[in-house]
Amino acid sequence: MDRVRTGLERLVAAPRTGRERVGLVTNPTGVLPDLTPAAPALLAAGTRVTTLFGPEHGLRGTAQAGGGEAAAADPVTGLPVADTYGRTGAELDALVAASGVEALVFDMADVGARFYTYVWTMCDLMGSAARLGLPFTVLDRPNPIGGAVAEGPVLDPAFASFVGRAALPLRHGLTPGEIALSANRATGAALEVVPMEGWRREWHFDRTGLPWVMPSANMPTLDTALVYPGTGLLEGVNAAEGRGTTRPFELVGAPYADGRLAAALNGLGLPGVRFRDTSFTPAYGRHAGVPVRGVQLHVTDRAAFRPVLTGVSLLHELRTLYPDDFACDPFLDLLWGSGSLRAHLEAGRDPRGLCPPPGPPEGDLLYD
Question: Which parts of the sequence belong to the Peptidoglycan beta-N-acetylmuramidase NamZ C-terminal domain (predicted)?
Answer without folding.
Answer: 226-352
